[in-house]
Structures are given as structure tokens and as C-alpha cells.
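Predict structure. Input: Enoyl-CoA hydratase/isomerase family protein, 260 residues.
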Amino acid sequence: MTLNLTREGATAVLTMNRPAQRNALSPDLRAAFLDAFQSIRDDDAVKAVVLTGSGGHFCAGGDIKAMAQAREQGADAFSGRQRLLKMQRWFDMLVDLEKPVITAIEGSAFGAGLSLALAGDYAMAAPSATFCAVFARIGYVPDLLGMYLLPRAVGLARAKEMVFTARVCNAEEALAMGLIQEICEGDVVEAALARAARFHAAPTQAIGLAKTIMNRAYESDREAVYAKEAMAQALCGQSGYHQEAARRFIEKQPPVYNWK
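Output follows.
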């Protein structure tokens, strides 16, 4: 299996499993992502997601050897375009997933692997983690939404510097620039699972609506956000979760969801 999907309580754990290739995105792995994200999206029992890699690495990006072999076998520009379009379908499902996604990063997060690291809502890294928009080294531009996600994470000027130089950033620099949110001295996957478990009692639908609106914050004007928040608040106000939470508040009972 190139991608392992397991459960830890209400957390879905996705582990890229090509350790000899530093979890580079082979055709089989890309296809497995599509099936996995469809399953997670449609499973109401899943409240949070942890995405990680096996063998001490997160993801080295595209499988360059596989792409070279495809060209030798006659793949042309149109097949290359189709390959990216297929990847974009499942990647959109990850970015738009209306559940909290935590990325647990060890070792390399290079190229498309950097995009995967940025696609979550909270990035946690081991001290060994390294990050690189490596594309320029092989004459490519960033793909898998790298030119969209990276400027939003670190700012336009810093994103350009990372892309133009294709240099490697360590975990400390990544934290300082906002590429990740936390460095874990212990087991980063265990730390990510512990964080994900805190969402098990959360209002998943409310968080999902907030995520969908905020994911589009930079493309939305004020009036559009007003309209979206009014719609979302009306929906949440009718939910069983809100009614139970309001009852507990009025009766001075402990809340179901309390992040401490």
C-alpha cells in the first residue's frame, strides 16, 4: 500500500508509504489520495485528519524518475497536463475538506510535498524537517497550488525568494516565517494525534463552515464575507450542537468543547 488510511478514535490518519523514495508522489499514491479523501469527506464519524509520511520523511514531491520514464514511453505535453489536472482534483478535496487537517512533518517536504505540508490547517514539524520549493532546480515552476498557498503562508516577497532560489529551509526558519506552526521535540505524529483528538468534541460543521469561508478570505470582498457569515451562522444556530451548547451555558454546566 502506497497510502495507509487508519483510525485513531475520530481521527483519520493518512500515512504516505513509499519510504525508499521518501514518499514521492507516484501514480499509485496519487490515485490512493483521491479514494482516501472521498472516504474521509463522506464519513461523519471522522472529526479530524493527520497527514504524515513513513520512513522519517514527509514527501519529496513528484516522482522524477517516473515522469522521465513516462516521457521515454511517449508521454507528451497533453498527458503531462492531464496528470496535473488529476492531481488537482484530489488536492482540492484536501484543501477544502471541512474538517481540521494537521500535517505532521519529518525529514523532507520538498516540491509538491511542500504544498501538501501547507494544505493542512496546522503544520507540526520535527526538528529534522526541511522545506524546499525545489522546482527551479529542474527547470519547473511550482505546482500543486504551491504558487497559491506559499505566498499566503509566508508573504509574497518571501515566497518569491524561496521559489527563485530553491534553497532548503530548516524547521527553525520555517517556524519563524510562518511556514509551520510548531516544532515538536518528541514524536511529531503522536503530538499531532494528541492535537487532533482535542477536536473530537468540537462542532465539526461549524469549524468546517468557518474554514471554507476563511480559505477564500483573500479573494472575497467585505460584502461577500458578510453574506457567507450570515448564511453560516443561520445554519449553525439551528444545529443540535449549538442548542445543547447553549443549554449548558444557560444552566452553567461545563461546555462539551473547551480548548484548554
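The beta strands are 3-8, 11-16, 48-53, 101-105, 108-110, 122-125, 130-132, 169-170, 182-183.
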